[in-house]
Design a protein that fits this description.
By secondary structure, the chain is of the alpha/beta class. It is built from 11 helices and 13 strands. The chain folds into 3 domains: 73 residues, Serine Threonine Protein Phosphatase 5, Tetratricopeptide repeat (Alpha Horseshoe), CATH 1.25.40.10; 51 residues; 175 residues, Vaccinia Virus protein VP39 (Rossmann fold, 3-Layer(aba) Sandwich), CATH 3.40.50. A 7-stranded mixed sheet has the order 8-7-6-9-10-13-12, with helices on both faces. Strands 2-3-4-11 form a 4-stranded antiparallel sheet. Strands 1-5 form a two-stranded antiparallel sheet. The radius of gyration is 22 Å and the shape is elongated. Bound molecules: zinc ion (ZN).
């Protein structure tokens, strides 16, 4: 059999989770064909990660990219968005050595994945993501990430009309726990929630760190400001706070959640959606779970770690729903401890 056929056979075994057989073939190939070593290392990294050795995976992935910077052109499918990616060396990053929720420094590597495998990979991020695990919190967080996460985010998409009825349901649910109609949204994105809230009759305002989102909101006549949530100052207090897909992006979730509690009226309610690594969807998806290759995410909550964050900030969960919008996300409503 030709080396490339052997390699393809190993890749099929890997895909089928036949890790030992795949590794055996890859080690043999690597030895017989030194030119193929980087490609073999890339696949052996996936084996190491799947077999519970993410640090070995981290080392092997970087070995592979260092020795063959354009390996995605050979390994990735024709239509893959990172087919033409070229590794130009590791960029400086922030390193997180303690759990962002509890400060525990005794955390362990949990998973390692190559970010270029995800659609829309931005080479501003280093290509390999190491996820750490804090056992007492049951929380997962990114070990390394760029100094400024947001300014490299993509330009806004257009509002998706199908999301209006979804937000109508969300707002209906959260309203059951709040007594008024003053709403604040953190991270307005393409404005679907704010647009739906206004239609329903909420007095709604939102902020976003990305100015393009805010300009879009203003074009729709919505009340919006460009601001970083944790630095946002206002004398207003709100009945409903909406934080859709925000906490997975913030480097200090405790600070953000305390801010949400501060802006909330005593009888208000908070709605949060965020990916749950322990969700039914993510467990079934295993290594294919797209959230594990999400470059912009630095936190990956479980229900437990999210509830402990709420508790730390004087909040209490009152409703848990599996998201209809994003596979593997949880939607939680919380109120103040009364
Ligand atoms: Zn922790």
């Amino acid at each position: 059999m030709e080396p490339i056929e052997e390699f393809n056979k190993a890749s099929v075994l890997l895909e089928k989770a036949e890790y030992n057989q795949a590794a055996e073939l890859l080690f043999k190939l690597r030895k017989q064909n030194p030119a193929m070593a980087p490609l073999c290392d890339y696949q052996l990294a996936a084996v190491a990660n799947a077999q519970g050795d993410p640090m070995m995976a981290y080392k092997l992935y970087y070995n592979a990219f260092t020795r063959m910077p354009n390996l995605t052109s050979v390994l990735y499918a024709e239509k893959a968005s990172s087919k033409n990616y070229i590794f130009t060396g590791k960029r400086n990053e922030q390193e997180r050595t303690s759990c962002p929720l509890c400060g525990n420094t005794d955390t362990t590597p949990k998973w390692c994945y190559p970010l270029p495998e995800a659609i829309g990979y931005n080479s501003f991020f280093n290509p390999i993501r190491l996820w750490m695990y804090c056992a007492p919190c049951h929380h997962v967080f990114a070990r390394h990430f760029p100094e400024k996460l947001f300014i490299y985010n993509d330009s806004p998409r257009s509002p998706q009309p199908s999301f209006f009825s979804y937000y109508s349901d969300v707002l209906g649910r959260v309203s059951q726990y709040a007594s008024g109609m003053k709403l604040f949204e953190v991270g307005i994105g393409a404005c679907e929630c704010l647009l739906a809230a206004r239609e329903i009759g909420f007095d709604a305002i939102g902020i976003d760190v990305i100015d393009k989102h805010v300009r879009m909101a203003r074009d729709y006549g919505l009340n919006a400001e460009t601001a970083d949530f944790v630095e946002y100052e206002t004398g207003d207090r709100f009945d409903v706070i909406i934080m859709g897909d925000v906490l997975e992006h913030v480097s200090d979730p405790v600070l953000a959640m305390n801010k949400a509690a501060e802006l909330m009226k005593e009888d208000g309610a908070l709605w949060v959606s965020t990916p749950n690594f322990d969700s039914a969807f993510s467990i079934v998806s295993g290594h294919k779970d797209g959230m594990k290759r999400q470059q912009y995410h630095v936190n990956y909550f479980s229900r437990d770690s999210f509830y402990s964050l709420l508790n730390k900030c004087g909040l209490m969960p009152v409703d848990y729903t599996i998201s209809e919008r994003y596979n593997g996300s949880m939607e939680v409503i919380a109120v103040k401890n009364r």
